[in-house]
Amino acid sequence: MSQLTETQGLRSLNDDGELQVAEDNADVRGWNVETNDGEVVGEVDDLLVDPTRMKVRYLTVELDSDSLQLQERRVILVPIEQAQINQQKKSVLLTGTGRTQVLGLPPYSQASGASTASSASNAVSASPLAAAPRSGQEARLTRAEEELRVGKRSVEAGEVVVGKHVETEHVSQPVTRMREQVRIERRPIDPTASASSIDITDQEIRVPLMQEEVVVEKRVVAREELVISKEMIEEAQTVEADLRREEFDIKPTDLQPGGDVSGATVKGRGER
Q1: What are 41-90's pLDDT values in tens digits?
Q2: At the N or C end, where does the chain have fewer CB atoms within 10 A?
């Protein structure tokens, strides 16, 4: 966007004899212009005023060729929102600006109005400087306030780790088993039996004994499972913030003996 578009309809305070700086505002023309680190980089040359709002929109600043090592005279265009006035030092601070940023600001040519300014074309906030209206004209002062808008976005709040580990438990279980044992009985023999088949010799009988042996076997069986899922729950939270708002300060000043300044009225919101 060209400077011709940016400054179209604006009027120079140096060239316009009908405009002047309001009495309760400082005329900063001729004041030193400083960067954040306190370096003086030039002085205010002119004020560009929006006649429809009677507000200063831009400062034109003539840079100090010696301190900035410039080869020729250079005037830059500074949005009024970027300027902070120091009444005691009679200087203008370019907020958030250093030497490099100053050299990067768009040049201002009063003759052609050509520039590459685009950063403050849509600024609507009230400027710290105001031009006093002539008789029959209107001056406008906009009152603004902050409003709270609450949005939501998803962020990671943590995680749940679900795993399993092995524990060992000693168990005991009673069990019954069968085993064989020898039972010996003594029985008398009939003495009338024939003795011809009886012989006296060494003799032994072996009787194997059997028993049940307990066999222990372990096997893995599934007992239960965990079903893992997620669900959304709603909870209430109170959001607190400090909101700023502008209020009008009306301080009538009677400058002439016998003058009447009591007729000033202020209409509230929605009043016509």
Answers
A1: 899 999 988 888 888 888 999 998 888 888 888 898 888 888 888 888 88
A2: C
Of 73, 70, 56, 67, the closest CA to residue 33 belongs to: 67
In a domain, 243, yes or no: no
Instruction: Give the torsion through C-alpha atoms of 99, 104, 110, 114, to 10 deg.
Output: 180
What's the CA gap between 266 and 135, in Å, rounded?
19
Is residue 163 one of the residues assigned to a domain?
A: no
Token pair 């090592």: residue: 69
CATH code of the domain containing 96: 3.90.50.10
The tokens of 148 are what? Answer: 């709270």
In this prediction the pTM is 0.42
Q: What is the pLDDT of residues 100-109, one digit of tens each?
A: 888 888 888 7
The answer to whether 190 and 198 have CB atoms below 8 angstroms apart is no
CA 107 to CA 62: how far, in whole Å?
10
Q: For the chain, what is the total number of helices (H) and then of strands (E)?
A: 3, 7
